[in-house]
Amino acid sequence: MTGGGRSRPTAAGPVGYARLWRADPGAWLATGAAWRGLADPVRRRADGLGAHADVLRPGWSGAASTAARRRIGELRGTLTDVLPALFEVDQALAEFAARVGVAKARLGTEVARAESGGLAVDRTGAVRADPARPVDRAGPAVVRAQAGIRGALALADAADREAAGRLGELATVAVTGWVTVPPARRPGPGAGPAEVSRWWAGLSPAERRWLVRHEPGRVGRLDGVPAGARDLANRLLLTDRREELLARRSALRHPLPAGPAEVARRARLARVEAALRGLDGLGERLAATGAPRAYLLGFDPAGDGRAVVALGNPDRAGAVLTYVPGMTADLADAPAELGRAARVLQRCATIGPGEETAAVLWLDYDAPDFLPEAAGARQAEDAGPALHRFQEGLRATHEGPPARQTVLGHSYGSLVVGATARDHGLGADALVFVGSPGVGVEHARDLRMPAGQVWASTAPDDVIRLAREPDELARRAVLAGTPLGPALAVLDPHADRLWFGADPSAPGFGGRHFPSARRGHTGYWDADNPALDGMARIVLGR
User: Do residues 235 and 295 lie in contact, with contact meaning Cβ atoms separated by under 8 Å?
Assistant: First the structure.
């Protein structure tokens, strides 16, 4: 576990104190990335074989030709079968590196706490009272420190054994082959995440890997399938979808005579170009070698495009954030929106360095593009069933004790979250609204959440404060021009009403407030904004 030179961790024995200190998670991340980097050469080789078969087909017929084409097809299939295995090795090593990093952080925290309390920790991890710094009641403090150190070592040991087992299983299945899953063994079209989870758990590892390889479109979109399998399936799909878009772009590049057809061609070409930019941006993030690893849980380049991406594995984390962006968000914006989720995770790591956390960008709805669309609640309400199902899926696939699930909506995304909680319920422990135009309810209790777990923040200079119905804005403008304007504004019974209902940041809403600096409508994630600390502490439950 001390470096990344080997292709798999070893479970030769319990992870010791000195061994954990020496462990280098970054080296394991680099090793996984090297395995993943083989995917493009393998694809090129498989495509080359396909091209050879196409060349042979027109001028060669008969039994020998049929046998040759069949053999080329078998070789091409063997190569393409390798692709999900390459991604899975990367995934296993990245998860191993992440857990080792958390274990090291916990170890460092425990040792620092012990030493600051007058205890000494030797090179084997043994704890004793420091004779040079006598403390009262050293016995219980020593016991607590020893328990904390043992907990960090146990986490690293479990990660080591799990990663070695997973890679060993993958090597075995690669030799013995996948197992075809009969068509009858599929969840029905109306199956919920819990049923899907039970179906997946009932499959053998070889059957699961066959489905990822041969039915990635089904596996990648199913809430209730673990994040790791969805990620593998969607990574396979991403290249195919990009090739399809490139072909469409090529076909659309030929101008037509001036007229409606040419206008339509240009519009379709612009949509294809935007989708390609979005997929390329996602591809760059998926190819990044640093932590946390990205998991592609869903995407669709059609229309404005959609994407669901996790940073860190939400099935393993003890705290999970689902972030729903607002107006104008689309596939092309996904990398930037993912950066906001990443900044919350970074602040979580600063506040709780020994905590396993993950953040999900949920952009699986048609966000409004223009103000007239954003003035209505239809798109938020249409998103409700999918967001509800996604959160239920996170609950169904989570391993170990239930995670603390937080759902955060920004701007129009806060209405998506509020309407979903109101109409369908949300599998969440806390809701957070930032820069909200209202969340579709008049009081926090209407969101069906535990008491005290609805939070909101609105920057003093956020223009969303002006998001009020036209008649209300006109009335306020009139009041502002009179000597009694300030006093009447204070006494106004509608002062806390926004476009979509009561202001969730107002005291009368019944939620909890956390502060934000003056950073406008998009600055809640700025490094020096206290709102970023507020979001991270809510995610961690602190």
Answer: no
